[in-house]
Amino acid sequence: MPPRAIVLSLEQLSRRCLGCYGHEWIETPNLDRFASRGVVFDHCFASPIPETEFRESSETLSNRLRQQGLVVLRKCESDAHDSDSLCDTAFSRLVAAGEQALLELSRDSTRSWLLCLESCGIGWPGVATSEFVELYADELDEELAADLVAIREIEVAYAALLTQFDHVLGRLLGTVDRLFGDAPPLIVVVAAHGQGVCEEEMLSPQLDQNTEATSDAGSLRDELVHVPLLILGATSEMLGSRRAELVTPADVLPTLSDWFGFPPEAAAELDAVSLLPVLRNEERPWRSELFFDDAEGATGLRNDQFLLVVPALSGIAERDGDEATCALFLKPEDVWQVNDVAAQYPDQVANLRTALLDRRQSR
Q: What is the pLDDT of residues 218-228, one digit of tens each?
């Protein structure tokens, strides 16, 4: 069977709100089923800056694959007018276009092809169609403390949008099953950015007590950089497995190149690597740290134990400069990044800060 692949890339999606990542009451049955049939990456992280480099590299890879004779189709989500009709939502239109493309691609079983579906993800803030809003009406009937009512209302609004998204995605996954049966293409669902849903409101008690430590984290907060990545079809031996490797959305690009049998060079400038060895459970050395940048100049380094955040690049301009501005958070314990432990781990701060400086100088 020739290699084939579908990539659904989302601009933003809350990992925390997905059932396959541990949420208990928001309904995402199609994503959960997808996860049970594929591989879930628990530690996928992305910088919060606009993904211009990623998009350019994605287009470069698409052009390169076309030059090699591969059929490459890209479908982008268009703006949709306000409507209470599910079929008129932007994501529904994108899925309909994807279904039509899959129907055409399935007519020739000898061709290799790549279908890229690009969506904004969950249009938040926004309002779901009435049928999905009604699903969560009972959640608003709970007896809650006054300061939690507004938070629950926001969560319920996001839950309705997310379940609506999951329902439409189920159509696409059903079409894949119907057309390709037991030989599905490689399917990737990935978000380029996380999405904050009530996190700042939930943090308000800690903000009052520890404003400085929390503000140090800035846009590198976990809910904004910790993103979902799910892959199905690379191998049948890892159904429903979870991986703890540090990965990024950019790793999808060399993975695709590798999948189609070409050297994974297209995303080298993004420090990206192919995930196929991980998906095939091959024993290979893997990265031990990831780097982050945001639009305000903050930079960070994440490993399996710590997240170091420097508020601005100028803070690491000199190797022997002032390290007092660095914030260090224990991971994964400190989900909300409210407990700066830099003073307790000066050696770790110095080592991670040096790694940040080396990385900056090498770019």
A: 678 888 899 99
